[in-house]
């Protein structure tokens, strides 16, 4: 499964990068395949391990902020691995045109 999520503190002002870094650090230390972009962090693995990492990432932000917002989207597809790469590769292949 792939989970794309965004966790942000509320009530701490506009500069939230330091708080978000706390969450991303938890994800990167998990050892699961992951990617972070400007809006979301995506993580790939089995249901329980991915949800545990998301929970710990939220807790890392919550430890410094009294209120936290979590946005989560999941692609639940048993048996698929390396979806973080293969899904993007498929789109890139189509963008390259019919000769690709």
From TrEMBL:
GO cellular component assignments: cytosol
Domain Thiamine-binding protein: 3-92
One family name in Pfam for this protein: Thiamine_BP
Highest taxon above the source species: Bacteria
InterPro entries the UniProt entry points to: MTH1187/YkoF-like, Thiamine_BP, UPF0045_domain
Family: Belongs to the UPF0045 family.
UniProt protein name: MTH1187 family thiamine-binding protein
